[in-house]
Amino acid sequence: MTDTRANIHVPNPDAPTPLEAARLTGGARPEDIESLRMQAAVYVYEVPVRVWHWVNALAITVLIVTGYLIGSPPPTVEISEATNQFVFGYIRFAHFAAAMVMTVAFIARIYWAFVGNRHARQLFYIPFWRLRWWKELIFEARWYAFLEKEPKKYIGHNPLAHFAMFFFITLGMTFMIFTGFALYAEGAGQGSIYDQLFGWVIGLAGNTQRLHTLHHLGMWAIALFAVIHIYAAIREDIMSRQSMITTIISGWRTFKDDRVE
Amino acid sequence: MATTPNGFDLDNSGKRIVVDPVTRIEGHMRCEVNVDEDGFIRNAVSTGTMWRGLEVILKGRDPRDAWAFTERICGVCTGTHALTSVRAVEDALGITIPDNANSIRNIMQLNLQVHDHIVHFYHLHALDWVNPVNALRADPKATSELQQSVSPSHPMSSPGYFRDVQNRLKQFVESGQLGLFKNGYWDNPAYLLPPEADLMATTHYLEALDLQTELCKIHTIFGGKNPHPNWLVGGVPCPINVDGTGAVGAINMERLNLVSSIIDKCTAFVNNVYIPDVIAIGGFYKNWLYGGGLSSQACLAYGDIPEHPNDFSADQLHLPRGAIINGNLNEVHEVDVRDPEQVQEFVDHSWYNYGEPGKGLHPWDGVTEANFELGPNTKGSRTNIEAIDEAAKYSWIKAPRWKGHAMEVGPLARYIIGYASGHEDIKGQVEGLLRTMDLPVSALFSTLGRTAARALEAEYCTRLQKQFFDKMIANIRNGDSSTANVEKWEPKTWPKECKGVGMTEAPRGALGHWVQIKDGRIDNYQCVVPTTWNGSPRDSAGNIGAFEAALMNTKMERPEEPVEILRTLHSFDPCLACSTH
Amino acid sequence: MAEIETFYEVMRRQGITRRSFMKYCSLTAAALGLGPSFVPKIAHAMETKPRTPVIWVNGLECTCCSESFIRGAHPLAKDVVLSMISLDYSHTLMAAAGHAAEAALEDTIEKYKGNYILAVEGNPPLNEDGMYCIVGGKPFVDQLRHAAKDAKAVIAWGACASYGCVQAAAPNPTQATPVHKVITDKPIIKVPGCPPIAEVMTGVITYMLTFDRLPELDRQGRPKMFYSQRIHDKCYRRPHFDAGQFVEEWDDEYARKGYCLYKMGCKGPTTYNACSTVRWNEGVSFPIQSGHGCIGCSEDGFWDQGGFYDRLTTVKQFGVEATADQMGIAAAGAVGAGIAAHIAASALKSAQRKKQDSEEV
Ligand code: HEM
Ligand code: HEM
Ligand code: NFV
Ligand code: SF4
Ligand code: SF4
Ligand code: F3S
Ligand SMILES: [Mg+2]
């Protein structure tokens, strides 16, 4: 898989070495960095990642809305005799359907982390051991706090986004899948495949009321992430030195200036 | 030798007898007595040996949930704490309940009285008087005659029936596995019944065991289960729907019929079996007049079974309210549970801390802070007590006092107060019983008087049950099906700070819950429970409580076999889980 | 133990015919949900076994488990104690007291080493050296350990013995501790509920007597036959739940129509018990049928899962107390306000920057 155009790696004679910042944190190789001075485009998010992103965004939106309603049902409606009316049943069905889509898509996304490009893996690990990464995380936070004049350039996710995505999505969604399927296992019944796979989670929570509460809290965590994420995507699209929204649509990252750092 | 302010001469020089565990009661209790050479009890010490800390656990919780916590104070008097709790919370928040809710609550409370009294008499108390082993020697035919003479309308009275039971009993005994009867005091001369009476009563032990599974179903209908039915602040949780769609789950005609049939069963059993048994057995023990204790001098009742919802004035209650002190039956004092000077709890001899000796606290300001410490004269060790030191702290039960007096509560106290204040039904019943048994009024102040008052009360309560059932039907007929008032259900409608008190007459006596609510949460919750009164340890002035008083000066046939101690303690129907909570 | 009669012998000698004995066996089979092929098995078991001794001890509790037990309708409690088991020790019901009671306990432990069942109601408190619950002058936990040592199996009755129940609710002042945390070397059968249903209690005992084995337990140690489904799974109001038809307020029109109690805080969806199938007191009703939601009384720690009337339970953390939604909405509000402020600040900054840039030019 190629992720850059053939002609963009022209060495930049003025570039400072070793150009650590972007190299270590943004997933960039030296040759990528060399090219950053140009208004070049880098192919970052491959088709499966982009498709996953939008499928996932949709599934999660459905899950949040229906999940909220499961916790606080809409007012009673009397359309028909109870056996012929399935309002709350549909809400729950939508939740479970979206949950299945989200889970399968997530598994596919994990698969793609193995076979896709470098950027496909970024979501699944955090370079805790790298001081540099932490420094840039702080730098990015300072940029949001208006304490830095100018952000750095990144090919993949900036460290702050990376951090949030790892905790709220990679871990958060895993948490939602495990707790969600444990709840689902209760309906499927003891001995069902769901129960065999996820029933033990109930034991960890102690009782299922607590599990519901944890699952519910998880919803808020993910919902808050989504809000901040969308805001940040739009803002960065406007204010940073690189493309954002077009990137998650087309896969290509472009830059607004020639400076390296 | 020392005389207590409430008039008992204590002498702990004789032989110390320890009964631990006291059995056939609810919960954990220990009793120690000193017996002189002639076998008379000259000093009595009763100790509550469990504590769970419900008052501590309730702090900070939603007052609408408190009924469920306090209901778990006891599964024997199940529901009465819940009722007391919802009353306390409603009092604090100014919530009124609909008429049907009052009737349903009364029916449930009365049903508990009847049920609990029956189970107490047959399963917790009878073996103090009845010897099932002796029943094997009975002639079934003579037993049948006895049954028919004491209770002509009880259908189960044929010789064949008694023979079957006797056979079953015989096989049981001969199996070599005596189970519950193992190690009973069956050859103690304190048992006086002829074999036929023993067989009749043992048969009723079994009948009552079967029947009580039926009686409790009134709780199941209105509260969903028994033990521990469900209650609701603002009314009752079960809606009434006798006309409309989807009435399953609501109180409908089928449910009402079931309630009414159970009331009939209660009535039949109490009239045909319970009362006749008490008279018959009591007849053989007529001369055993020990155990009066405080009953002739200090009795307390809060009253219960309000005729109208939300009206707890004394003259509107079917079970009487009042206090008798200093043995003066001519004066029934008014009781005000809100008055900080009336009900107070002391802890000088209890395993709690107030920080100040001799201090009494009104329950609204009550403090529950555990402090387990044994006196210097304790025999044994901290975790292996051989003899308790009653001069120090010696019980998990606090010592409640009414205007400084140790009081007896319970069916006998209610009946003495009812009798003294001229309560028509009660007076009629008491006089009838005394006439039938040819006994003077003074016979009431005894262990057997306590047992008899309980039976009379069961009978009175079956009648009241019917009365409130009819009242509810009339009310529904008039178009009122309402069972709950939700105006102040939401905490945002509550005052920032308030306090309330709830009272009931639990099977074992006067029960009060005092609650303080702050910012929608329980700030303080204190329960003063019937067995807290009766099982009270000494106070700083040295007054002994009702259990201890009642044991005094009783003659024991065989001091090492505590039959007499059990008789008198059981006559109170002690509930230790209640007493200490 | 030659002098000890078998179950069948006792029944026969009580004048019960072989025919009604077999009928009894098939009723037992039916009560346990077993097919007719099990009847001979049950009969055989009853023909060959002496009554199993049961030692029933009480710790911190409210005795409602005993009370529930005697409410048993099929079999009747009477028949259980006279013909099925030998209840050799029970504070609540036994004739003997004090030393004589303790002697009965020792005698059974001695005589039936390894063959008696220990039934525990309530739990031991561990604070104050266990002296929040004293039996015979000593901590209850001593008696529990002593009686458990030679027991064949331990039954933990009710929420108290299984999980701690009300006395273990926060802040658990006595450190009331469930049985399985104290007795770790014996099979323990948890029969939770506050109290458990009478027929579930007798069902568990008769199962053990009949099949001479422990019931199959689920992950939490509860008999699968009674605890493998939630109240909600078999609740007769379930169609209203699926329809979205809820009681909105106590005693409203919907309450009278028997709609679902979910919004009134019903814990049926999170509670494993047999109430909606076996129901209570001979099938007369169960909490939901009588209009109140399930409070989850057979679940671990059900006292501390927030209010009984809240669908969403409150979480107490860092001194604040709120439901997941209240917390979420507060956080969303803060984030929303933060974003709005951030937008404003960003706009201001970039305006400043543009101005600077144009000035520099
Ligand atoms: C981002 C993902 C998810 C979100 C935001 C979400 C949100 C929610 C929320 C808020 C509830 C209500 C909880 C309560 O208050 O009781 C809920 C319930 C539930 N969720 Fe999810 N959920 C997610 C993923 C999943 C997954 C992957 C499953 C797996 C099947 C799942 C299955 C369930 C089930 C079974 C319930 C309980 C339904 C009921 O009690 O009727 N959820 N969810
Ligand atoms: C209008 C809606 C959305 C827009 C405009 C949007 C935009 C973006 C953009 C621009 C990126 C790339 C970020 C970067 O290059 O560092 C991205 C990545 C991502 N977004 Fe969104 N997003 C949206 C909704 C969501 C939602 C609802 C979720 C889930 C809660 C989500 C989860 C993610 C994740 C997990 C990634 C990382 C993808 C990867 O590395 O595989 N997005 N999104
Ligand atoms: N004492 C006491 Fe109770 C009663 N009756 C309650 O208030 O028993 Ni358990
Ligand atoms: S589990 Fe509940 S019902 Fe049983 S003893 Fe404990 S508090 Fe009582
Ligand atoms: S009433 Fe409770 S258990 Fe029944 S369907 Fe509704 S939520 Fe489920
Ligand atoms: S409260 Fe308990 S009794 Fe059954 S319906 Fe719920 S488990
Ligand atoms: Mg108290």
UniProtKB/TrEMBL annotation, chain A:
Membrane protein topology class: Multi-pass membrane protein
Domain of life the protein comes from: Bacteria
Annotated Cytochrome b561 bacterial/Ni-hydrogenase domain residues: 44-249
A Pfam family hit: Ni_hydr_CYTB
InterPro entries: Cyt_b561_bac/Ni-Hgenase (IPR011577), Di-haem_cyt_TM (IPR016174), Hydrogenase_cytochrome (IPR051542), Ni-dep_Hydgase_cyt-B (IPR000516)
Keywords on record: Cell membrane, Electron transport, Heme, Iron, Membrane, Metal-binding, Transmembrane, Transmembrane helix, Transport
Transmembrane segments: 51-70, 90-112, 160-185, 217-234
Entry-linked Gene3D superfamilies: Transmembrane di-heme cytochromes, Chain C
Compartments (UniProt record): Cell membrane
Family note: Belongs to the HupC/HyaC/HydC family.
Stated name of the protein: Ni/Fe-hydrogenase 1 B-type cytochrome subunit
Organism: Rhodovulum iodosum
UniProtKB/TrEMBL annotation, chain C:
UniProt enzyme class: oxidoreductase
Keywords: 3Fe-4S, 4Fe-4S, Cell membrane, Iron, Iron-sulfur, Membrane, Metal-binding, Oxidoreductase, Signal
Cofactor(s) for this UniProt protein: [4Fe-4S] cluster; [3Fe-4S] cluster
Domain (Cytochrome-c3 hydrogenase C-terminal) ranges: 227-306
Subcellular localization: Cell membrane
Catalytic reaction(s) noted: H2 + A = AH2
EC number: 1.12.99.6
Domain NADH:ubiquinone oxidoreductase-like 20kDa subunit: 62-207
Protein family according to the UniProt entry: Belongs to the [NiFe]/[NiFeSe] hydrogenase small subunit family.
Quaternary data: Heterodimer of a large and a small subunit.
Protein name as catalogued: hydrogenase (acceptor)
Natural source organism: Rhodovulum iodosum
